[in-house]
Design brief:
Layout lengths: L1 H8 L4 H29 L2 H20 L3 H29 L3 H33 L1 H19 L26 H30 L4 H25 L5 H18 L6 H16 L1 H12 L5 H53 L10
Helix pairs in contact: 1-2, 2-4, 2-12, 3-4, 3-6, 4-5, 4-12, 5-6, 5-8, 5-11, 7-8, 7-11, 7-12, 8-10, 9-10, 9-11, 9-12
Length: about 375
């Protein structure tokens, strides 16, 4: 929040701020696959040390020289660091689980972290900016990676597998030849795009309805809180529901809610739809991560996670541009209905997962 706000206060355009935000995701698009291979080769600790160092240096640059071009470098370095650390962490957590139920549970716990940070991060940054200025917010950003490493340093390491294994299938792109993996990537991309649609178009829709900035912010905040709340319940639900069931229900619910969203006129109605959508989309990530670890060989988890990260962050870079252009042509309602229809049709992939058998050697 701090960097875009600082850029706007210094007179930079909304387009420049969009570039600044895109750089964070762009770094992850290009580094996702190398980060997956690095985590596959070295496990958790070495990638985490490297990520912590890169993020700290990037944030300290903003503390020392709080200029727009430096903030762009900070976005790139922090994006790269997050990519490396998260892929290493997700791979490690996946290897901790002993069966499919534990996979769903551990990834449900992991998914809570980003949800909480999406609330605490902007809140802490806002308080520090008002109290001490932007440099204080950047200094907090520089300290957090070391705190993360302090917690991770004593976590037992899992043996790393060689990425040069002759059975690895060669290029990481060969993973997409596997139909279950390819279908999972399609579902993940569709639901990730829905998250982007909501974040990008709700302010536009609220502006068209004449809602205040506070009302629009409350609608988006309700979405984030609902996504966090459902993830707190997911460790309990994970032992009782199949991945395909959760993802299928989420896709059908999202399609229906996207159909209703453009019809909402009042802030209260939009807030209710936002809560329901937060519950639907917030439940997906643990199920996707659990499925990914079941349908890919153990020695290729890092590469699979890299492909997933690249797809999601590529979507975050390109989809807002596409949605903006489409909104001009067909209107905000048309974008909601089109995306909802695509997700609804795509839900058949999730229902097909329920009868799929996972090869035991992959767990």
């Amino acid at each position: 929040m701090a960097a875009p706000l600082m850029a706007l206060r210094e007179g930079y355009s909304a387009a420049a701020v969009g570039v600044l935000l895109a750089l964070f995701a762009l770094a992850q698009v290009f580094l996702a696959l190398p980060a997956g291979r690095f985590a596959q080769r070295y496990g958790l600790h070495r990638p985490f040390v490297l990520a912590s160092g890169v993020a700290t240096v990037g944030a300290l640059m903003a503390v020392a020289i709080p200029k727009f071009w430096v903030l762009c470098l900070t976005a790139l370095t922090c994006g790269a660091a997050v990519c490396l650390a998260m892929i290493a962490l997700q791979r490690h957590v996946g290897h901790m689980a002993r069966d499919a139920t534990e996979l769903r549970q551990v990834f449900s716990w992991v998914a809570i972290g980003p949800s909480i940070s999406n609330f605490l991060g902007p809140f802490a940054a806002g308080v520090l900016i008002d109290a001490s200025g932007f440099r204080a917010a950047y200094l907090l950003l520089a300290l957090l990676p070391s705190l993360a490493w302090w917690w991770v340093r004593r976590v037992p390491e899992h043996p790393a597998e060689s990425v040069g294994d002759p059975d690895s299938g060669g290029s990481s792109w060969n993973l997409l030849r596997d139909k279950p993996f390819r279908n999972l990537m399609w579902m993940n991309w569709m639901l990730s795009s829905c998250w982007d649609v909501h974040t990008f178009l709700v302010p536009v829709l609220g502006h068209e309805r004449g809602l205040s900035a506070t009302a629009i912010g409350s609608v988006l905040g309700a979405f984030a809180l609902a996504a966090t709340a459902i993830r707190l319940l997911m460790p309990w639900l994970a032992a009782r529901l199949h991945e395909g069931t959760v993802i299928g229900i989420a896709m059908v619910s999202t399609a229906l809610l996207f159909g209703l969203y453009p019809l909402a006129q009042a802030a209260l109605t939009m807030g209710l739809l936002s809560v329901l959508l937060g519950v639907a989309l917030g439940s997906v990530q643990p199920m996707v991560m659990s499925t990914l670890h079941q349908i890919t060989p153990r020695h290729r988890h890092g590469e699979a996670l890299g492909l997933r990260s690249m797809a999601i962050n590529g979507s975050s870079v390109l989809m807002p541009l596409l949605f903006g252009s489409a909104g001009v042509l067909v209107g905000v309602a048309g974008v909601f209905w089109t995306v909802g229809a695509v997700v609804g049709v795509g839900s058949r992939l999730a229902w097909g997962m329920r009868s799929a058998q996972v090869p035991p050697q992959r767990l």
